[in-house]
Target: Glycerol-3-phosphate dehydrogenase [NAD(P)+]
Amino acid sequence: MDIQRAAVIGGGSFGTVVANILADNQIQTVQWMRNEVVASAINTSHTNPDYLPGVALNPELKATTDLLAAVKDADVIFVSVPSHSVRQVVTSFAAELKPEQALISTTKGIEHDGFLLMSQVLAEICPNNPVGVLSGPNLAKEIGKRELAATVIASENSELRRNVQDALSCSYFRVYASNDLYGVELGGALKNIYAIVSGFVAALGMGENTKSMIITRSLAEMSRFAVALGANPLTFLGLAGVGDLVVTCMSPLSRNYRVGYAIGQGKTLEDAIKELGEVAEGVNTLKYVRARAIELDIYMPLVMGAYEILFNGAQPKDVAQGLMTGDYASDVEFALPKHEI
Ligand SMILES: NC(=O)C1=CN([C@@H]2O[C@H](COP(=O)(O)OP(=O)(O)OC[C@H]3O[C@@H](n4cnc5c(N)ncnc54)[C@H](OP(=O)(O)O)[C@@H]3O)[C@@H](O)[C@H]2O)C=CC1
Ligand SMILES: O=C(CO)COP(=O)(O)O
Model:
């Protein structure tokens, strides 16, 4: 099955760049969103003024607020709404799908009930449809400007992986393949927590050694968690692991980083989210991952510290100091296990 027609569900910044790449690649693409004003702007002035201002979109990209019309003839449907709305939105069109229509999640979040990742939510709602995940260091605002970037398509279905590579690869976007759906997806969700932590670090004016320490220990912590949940640790060496972690921990374009930065400057979480006006998945992910880590007894000092800052009013400086005096630990615990140090 070649991809000739695609639907993108969601009118935010990432949904828009995915839809635009597809249109650039001459795939008939319909983007669904609930906001009629934005849909009309995409159709008439070929811009998304709310989420991607200043980016000239491909004039062939069509937008609609009619969800069933958007998905009807699509060979592949990219789901790009925030995690808290994926189940509700997908459920509202699931009964209309034909089994050959594939679903690809681009959403980097976790569903609270059952700790489900988005591909698991999609598979639960649409058990007969092929499912995949797109994740990587993909700041939408840079890709919108057609700056060079790469991503990962993860699926157990090799034909789907190849079709998505064909549909999205172009002069400014390179698509790598993975069969570790769970690891790729977990990498995308977990790194948002550490982007918030990196925002604290930047707001406190800490040095480059500190930033490097935080990013590297974040990788150790997220891969420890992922392996405990059954993912392949090698996936974290790739674009969806270290790649996405580095970009979101270093760029003020990351919304999660910006939330951490604002809190590090003394703002409340509520004000930080309100000022952002876009989704920062890491805030909820932090809550769910902390609860899971406690339940499974997984050592995650950065998660625990970030939770105290975000939800219990702890001061970032005090938490950072506390982390420096923890028990002695192994640098790479897959090489030197903790109990052998
Ligand atoms: N932006 C990025 O750089 C990247 C984002 N992602 C991931 O993609 C996902 C989507 O993010 P992104 O596009 O950035 O989000 P944005 O914050 O830019 O936009 C969110 C979009 O989702 C819509 N939406 C929110 N709730 C609902 C709902 N209940 N029903 C229908 N539509 C809804 C919003 O509509 P409205 O305007 O009407 O509220 C808006 O169009 C996230 O999980 C994110 O982590 C992945 C890679 C990169
Ligand atoms: O996932 C992203 C880049 O890969 C975007 O990160 P934010 O959601 O923090 O903006």
